[in-house]
User: Which sequence fits this backbone?
């Protein structure tokens, strides 16, 4: 067999190895296509929940998956004297902290509310008392999952005693702040139309999700194609002379 006027002489061992690698690469690419469709489904569902009108925080919170990323309203009062802080947060390039405030619902339950960002110089609630509502108020936000969202091996340790929290842990935060009958493991990401109307600034809850699976799929398929090209080139002998006779 000849290709481009050169004999094509693949070896058995090389052919088997190349075939196995080709199937693995194609399999990895196809798996990323499946992941692409799965992730896009999650994104569409999250956006649908986010765009739906806000409803009252339900009494039954047993179906956590059905509640995540839904907009809800709640009524109660903040405990500003028990604020919890997430250090190392930035907003438009400025350093500051994230503020989590215990919220005592009028029905007797407790809810942790991520109110947003304040500059380090305004961390003390006494420096922004004008934006800390007292008494019974109604708030709106998005129900979000607590806990560390990254890899376990890089999970930072929260310092409850020092009120330094690297991620929102609703159970530990509720216990530390003395919030009774707390709703866990969810918390409420506060939402305001005018996010810079008052401190803390309230950037939109994290509704975006990375979806890089298309790039990953293209990479694996491209490697499979490159493998085919390398295999063909490796298996081709020297070019035959013009007259057709062996050199």
Assistant:
């Amino acid at each position: 067999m000849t290709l481009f006027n050169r004999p094509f002489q693949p070896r058995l061992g090389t052919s088997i190895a190349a075939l196995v690698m080709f199937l693995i690469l194609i399999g990895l690419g196809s798996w990323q296509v499946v992941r692409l469709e799965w992730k896009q489904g999650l994104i569409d569902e999250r956006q649908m929940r986010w765009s739906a009108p806000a409803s009252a925080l339900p009494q039954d919170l047993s179906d956590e998956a059905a509640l995540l990323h839904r907009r809800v309203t709640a009524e109660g009062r903040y405990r500003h004297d028990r604020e919890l802080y997430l250090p190392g947060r930035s907003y438009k390039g400025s350093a500051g902290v994230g503020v989590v405030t215990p919220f005592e619902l009028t029905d007797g339950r407790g809810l942790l509310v991520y109110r947003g960002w304040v500059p380090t110089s305004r961390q003390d609630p006494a420096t922004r008392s004008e934006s800390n509502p007292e008494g019974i108020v109604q708030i709106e936000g998005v129900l979000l999952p607590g806990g560390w969202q990254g890899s376990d091996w890089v999970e930072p340790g929260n310092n409850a005693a020092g009120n330094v929290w690297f991620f929102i842990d609703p159970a530990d935060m509720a216990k530390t702040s003395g919030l009774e009958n707390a709703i866990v493991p969810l918390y409420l990401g506060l939402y305001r139309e005018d996010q810079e109307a008052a401190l803390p600034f309230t950037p939109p809850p994290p509704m975006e999700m990375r979806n890089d699976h298309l790039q990953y799929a293209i990479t694996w398929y491209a490697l499979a194609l490159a493998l085919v090209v390398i295999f063909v080139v490796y298996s081709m002998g020297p070019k035959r002379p013009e007259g057709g006779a062996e050199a």
The mean pLDDT is 87.
